[in-house]
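Its record is retained below.
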Amino acid sequence: MFRYKITLGILFFSNCSLIFGAADSLKQEAQHQVFMLSESPAQQVQECINRVQDLLETDLNQAEQCLLLADSVMQTNHLNKFNSQISYLKAEVEFSKGNLRQALSGFLEAEIMFADKNNAQGLANTYNKLGLINISQADFPTALDYFIKSLTLKEQNSDTLGIADTYSNIGNALFELNDTDQALNYFLKSLEMDKKQLNESGMAKTLMNVGLVYKENFEYEKAMDYYNQSLAIHKKNNNRHEIATCYSNLALIYQETGNDAKALEFYKLALSIYEQTGAKMGIASVLSNLGYLHSLNEDYPTAIRYLKDAMRIAQEINAIPLIEIISQSLSDAYQRLGNYREAYNYHLLYKAMYDKLNNDENARQFTQMEMTYEFEQQKKELEFRQQQKELEHQAELKRQRLILQFSLTGAFFLAVFLVFVYRSYQQKQRDNKLLQEQKKAIEEQRDKIDKQNQDITDSIHYARRIQTALLPPDNLLDKLLPEYFILYKPRDIVSGDYYWASEKNGKTVLVAADCTGHGVPGAFMSMLGISFLNEIIQRETELSCSSILNKLRDNVIASLRQTGKVGETKDGMDLTIVIIDKNTQTLQYSGAYNPLLLVRQGELVQYKADKMPIGISDKAESTFTNQEIQLIKNDTLYMFSDGYVDQFGGPDNSKFKSKPFKELLLSIQSVSMAEQQQILDHTIESWKGTGEQIDDILVVGIRI
């Protein structure tokens, strides 16, 4: 079960004060004419560099082409003084496109070049970029270390604009660490410095970041005000990439405040600009949000089309967090359309991405080490090429000396070889002994792990005894429900599904619930739900299904400290509750996602549930619906979780599905409730075959 909301906010990472000098559009056109007419290759390269700095804001593809031209002229004319500038700008283009691996390699190469030339300003800006890449990889300590290095250099050079840029980037890192108060302090310090220096570009980016903090704290009016201030400046300066980001963030506010038409309008404006500038990360993010917006409006075919386009780009740039979000959205959309095979496939991809992000912290460090290692190899190759020319004039002399020394050297190496063979033989003997010792240690470790696994299994079995003790005992159920059955099949010893019954004021209350997850986490949720139900029933004077669900939801949200923030877990439960008044033969029903089935005189009627969970959601302030049903003799009621209908099996390894489940219930009305339980159990076991049970199963049947 998925309960989630995509809010892909886009932070404005500061571009740092440009190290090579920027020009407005009229000056660029003049410089372009100089390039076309100039006979000086150095002037041509410098003109290209100046144009690239503004193209980074408007068209990444043109920026890349301009760099290729500058690099060609530089290489042809041996203008090595531009090496560091061009390497830096190449890395900046890759960073803007979302190609983080290539960007990291390029900035590390630029760092070495700037260090060799004692270019403190270039080093400071490069450290800023390396910090931003580490934020993208969620390595915040390393990111902050780079920002502090950058800040130190900028303070030494009294670079006020550079200091403001670095403050903004430190704020970005703190924002990603959820320290919004400290992040806001740095953003406001940066904004104050940019205002004093009349730095409109820096002001616009920091205004957007301040808006993101207020949006994160659900202060939408303040966020909208800062977004619009930022947008006005970017429109004035025609910074197209930043304009697109403003549109995307404005769309998110419209979406979260329920104005879907405005959200769709701004998403499409942002997408058009991102496609023109070639910003892949921006394109994928907006497509993902468009897909989720259409999914919210139940236009699943359109949602799937957007999401698949987003997935293709996200996989191309290896944006793992974005792949996780898109695969979850696709799984949910296909499930809503009844395409359970595709839903299952994308759920597997989502699970893999989730595990990669949440359960393998060393993976990020390994990726960083891997990219650093690749760069070290490139660095060694570069140093080798630089040294090669110096060594060429000595090669002939060395060759002659080698010829003269060949005989002595050959004899020496022969002796060394014989010694090596002998020592290798001895080493092999030692290795064999070590191998045996390691084998013994591994076997001992295996036995230890087996013992630990057994201890864990024994503990879970004991937990099952505790959970079973909390469920209603048979003698209570027999008293309250003269004819009934309960099919209860936990997937992992303990269960996230549970049933509960009570009696008050001559009325019978019965609950069938499905908690988030299964196994031990689900069992904890089930025990929490049972405790809250006992407490609510004791306090209630007048029993109402909707009132019980409202109070249960409030207790779950409060106990799990759920606030609805981005990235927060959406744990909760789906639930069916009925209250049977034996005196009046009436029934109350309310449902959180889970329906109630009634079979009467050979016909099946489904009473729909409210589409909101017992837990935090967009509808957490809404009241559950209370439905009343007049019962007649031999009415049969069914309450169930989704484990039965979602079980994979059969000849095509597909889900059992809801329609066959209902047909099965209709076909067994002539037999007793005990026989119905046996038939349902046998049917699902036959359907599952040798496959695994994928979820907890709970079906409760009651005959009036």
